[in-house]
C-alpha cells in the first residue's frame, strides 16, 4: 500500500489490512483443499473424508462472518479511501465467492454420504477420470486466485480464466459422455444425476475462482472487469446449464 | 465552517444518494422478476423466440449490477456513511450480486426453453415447473418488498418458503428420473428439465439470501449460517435483554 500521500501510514491500520488479506488467503486455501477432499470422498465412498468436509465447512462459514465483520469495522471506523477502500471491498466480495465455492464442496460431500448410505459404489467408473481431473483444476484455480489476492497480483487473472475455460470444456465433455451412460443403463439414473450435480459443482467452483481473480483486478486497478470482454461471453455460452 | 451544518448537509446528500440507489435496486429487481416470468412462460408455451430474447437481455441485468455497484462504492468513498448507513450500503451491494446471479439462472432457463421449443411436450404439460416457477417468482418479489420496507418479519416469512421450494425441487427431480426410466427416449428432454428445476431452486436460494440481508440491516445480525428458527429466537432474546437493560 503506497498511499502515503493520503496519510494512511498508521501502523495499526496497515496491520489490520494485511491481517484481513491473510485471513482471506487462509480461508481460500481451505476452500481449495475442500474440493479435493470432497471428490475423493465421492470416488472412494469414504464417509470419513465426507464428514471432514462437512466439519471444515463450518470453519469456512465462521471465517467468512469474521472477515466480513472485520471489513465492516474497518470501513466504519477508518473510512479508507482509494486503494485501501478497494482492498476492503475486494476482500469482502472475494470471501462471498469463497464461501459459495465452499458450499459446492459441501454438496459433493453430501452426495458422497448419501451414496455410501445407499450402499452404492458411487459414480460410474467412466466418470472417475473427469471428476478427478475437474477437481484438480478447480482446486488449482482457487489456489492461484487466492494467492493472487494475497499478493495483489492482477496478472494471474488470465491464468485463472484459462483454467476456468479448461474446466468448462471438461464439464461439457463429461456431460456428453454421461448422457450416453444414462441412455444405456437407465437403472443407474440416480447415481448419474448425482454425478451430473457433482460435475456442475466443480464447474461452479471454477467460476468462483474466476470471480476471485476479477476481484483482484479490481483491487489492483480499480477496473470492474466482470461481464466484460469476449472471454466472459464465450464462457457463458459454453456452459448453458 | 459550521461542523453541524456540514454533517447535516452530508447526511441529506447521503439520504438522496441512498434513495436514488434504492430505486435503482428495485428497478433491477423488477426487471429480473419480469425476465423470470417470461423465461418460465417461454418454456411452458414452447416459445423459442421469447426464450432467446430473455437470454439475450441478461446483459442488461449485468449492466445494472455494475452501475449500482459503482454508485455504492462512490457513495461509501465520498460520504463516509455512519455504521448503520454503511450496513444498508453493504446489504445493497450484496443484494445486487444475488439479483445478478438470479439473472444468470434465468438466462439458462431462457436458453433451455428455446432449445426445447421444438420438442414434444411432456404429458403433464410442465405442471410442476409452472408451480415451482410461481413459488420462486413470488419469493423474489416478496423478498424485494421486504427489503424496500426493511421489514424483517416479512423477510423471515419469505425466507421460510425456501424449504417448500427445496421440497418441490426434490419431488420434481424424482419424478423426472421416473419419466426417464419409463421412457429412455425422454432422457434428453428430462436432462434439460433437470437444469431448469435446478435453476429455479437456486433462484429460491438467492431470494432467501436477500431476506437475510434485510434482517442484517434491521437487526445488525448476520444470520446466514444459522437456522431461521435459531436466528429469530436469538433476535427475540436480545431484544428482550435490551428492554431489561433500559
Question: In summary, what is this structure?
Answer:
The complex is a heterodimer of chains A (241) and B (246). Chain A is mainly alpha-helical and 241 residues long. Chain A has seven helices and no strands.
Query: What gyration radius of chain B follows from the Cα positions, in whole Å?
Result: 21 Å
pLDDT < 50 runs, ≥5 residues of chain B: none
The CATH architecture of chain B would be Up-down Bundle
* CA(first)-CA(last) distance of chain B: 37 Å
The first-level CATH class name of chain B: Mainly Alpha
Are there runs of chain A of 5+ residues with pLDDT below 50, and where? 1-8, 230-240
Number of strands of chain A: 0
Strand-residue proportion of chain B: under 5%
CATH evolutionary superfamily of chain A: Phosphate transport system protein phou homolog 2, domain 2
CATH class of chain A: Mainly Alpha
- The beta-strand count of chain B equals 0
Beta-strand share of residues of chain A: under 5%
Cα end-to-end separation of chain A: 41 Å
Superfamily at the CATH H level of chain B? Phosphate transport system protein phou homolog 2, domain 2
The largest pleated sheet of chain B is described as: none
Percent range of helical residues of chain B: over 70%
Count of helical regions of chain A: 7
**CATH fold node name of chain B:** Methane Monooxygenase Hydroxylase, Chain G, domain 1
CATH architecture of chain A: Up-down Bundle
**Class based on secondary structure composition and strand pairing of chain B:** mainly alpha
Amino acid at each position: 500500500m503506497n498511499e502515503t500521500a493520503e496519510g494512511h501510514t498508521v501502523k495499526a491500520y496497515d496491520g489490520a489490512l494485511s491481517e484481513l488479506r491473510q485471513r482471506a488467503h487462509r480461508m481460500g486455501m481451505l476452500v481449495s483443499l475442500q474440493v479435493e477432499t470432497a471428490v475423493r470422498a465421492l470416488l472412494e465412498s469414504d464417509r470419513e473424508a465426507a464428514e471432514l468436509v462437512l466439519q471444515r465447512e463450518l470453519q469456512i462459514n465462521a471465517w467468512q462472518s469474521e472477515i466480513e465483520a472485520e471489513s465492516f469495522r474497518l470501513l466504519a471506523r477508518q473510512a479508507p479511501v482509494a486503494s485501501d477502500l478497494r482492498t476492503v471491498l475486494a476482500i469482502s466480495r472475494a470471501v462471498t465467492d469463497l464461501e459459495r465455492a465452499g458450499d459446492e464442496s459441501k454438496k459433493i460431500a453430501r452426495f458422497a454420504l448419501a451414496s455410501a448410505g445407499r450402499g452404492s459404489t458411487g459414480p460410474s467408473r467412466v466418470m472417475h477420470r473427469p471428476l478427478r481431473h475437474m477437481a484438480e483444476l478447480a482446486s488449482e484455480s482457487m489456489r492461484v486466485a487466492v494467492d493472487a489476492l494475497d499478493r495483489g497480483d492482477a496478472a494471474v487473472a488470465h491464468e485463472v480464466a484459462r483454467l476456468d475455460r479448461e474446466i468448462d470444456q471438461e464439464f461439457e465433455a463429461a456431460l456428453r459422455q454421461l448422457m450416453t451412460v444414462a441412455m444405456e443403463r437407465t437403472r443407474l439414473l440416480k447415481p448419474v444425476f448425482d454425478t451430473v450435480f457433482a460435475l456442475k459443482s466443480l464447474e461452479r467452483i471454477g467460476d468462483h475462482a474466476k470471480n476471485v481473480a476479477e476481484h483482484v483486478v479490481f483491487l489492483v486497478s480499480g477496473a470492474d472487469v466482470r461481464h466484460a470482454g469476449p472471454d466472459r461471453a464465450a464462457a457463458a455460452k459454453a456452459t448453458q446449464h | 465552517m459550521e461542523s453541524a451544518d456540514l454533517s447535516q448537509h452530508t447526511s441529506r446528500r447521503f439520504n438522496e444518494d441512498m434513495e436514488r440507489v434504492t430505486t435503482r435496486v428495485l428497478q433491477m429487481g423488477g426487471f429480473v422478476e419480469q425476465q423470470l416470468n417470461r423465461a418460465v412462460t417461454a418454456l411452458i408455451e414452447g416459445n423459442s423466440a421469447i426464450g432467446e430474447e430473455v437470454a439475450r437481455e441478461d446483459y442488461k441485468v449485468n449492466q445494472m449490477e455494475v452501475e449500482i455497484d459503482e454508485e455504492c462504492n462512490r457513495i461509501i468513498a465520498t460520504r463516509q456513511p455512519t455504521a448503520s448507513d454503511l450496513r444498508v450500503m453493504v446489504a445493497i451491494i450484496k443484494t445486487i450480486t444475488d439479483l445478478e446471479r438470479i439473472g444468470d439462472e434465468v438466462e439458462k432457463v431462457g436458453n433451455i426453453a428455446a432449445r426445447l421449443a421444438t420438442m414434444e411436450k411432456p404429458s403433464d404439460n410442465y405442471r410442476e415447473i409452472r408451480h415451482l416457477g410461481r413459488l420462486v417468482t413470488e419469493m423474489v418479489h416478496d423478498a424485494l418488498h421486504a427489503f424496500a420496507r426493511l421489514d424483517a418479519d416479512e423477510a423471515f416469512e419469505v425466507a421460510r418458503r425456501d424449504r417448500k421450494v427445496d421440497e418441490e425441487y426434490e419431488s420434481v427431480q424424482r419424478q423426472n428420473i421416473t419419466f426417464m426410466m419409463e421412457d429412455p427416449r425422454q432422457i434428453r428432454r428430462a436432462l434439460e428439465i433437470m437444469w431448469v428445476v435446478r435453476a429455479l431452486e437456486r433462484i429460491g436460494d438467492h431470494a432467501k439470501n436477500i431476506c437475510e440481508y434485510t434482517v442484517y440491516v434491521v437487526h445488525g445480525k448476520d444470520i446466514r449460517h444459522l437456522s431461521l428458527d435459531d436466528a429469530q429466537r436469538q433476535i427475540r432474546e436480545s431484544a428482550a435483554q435490551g428492554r431489561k437493560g433500559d
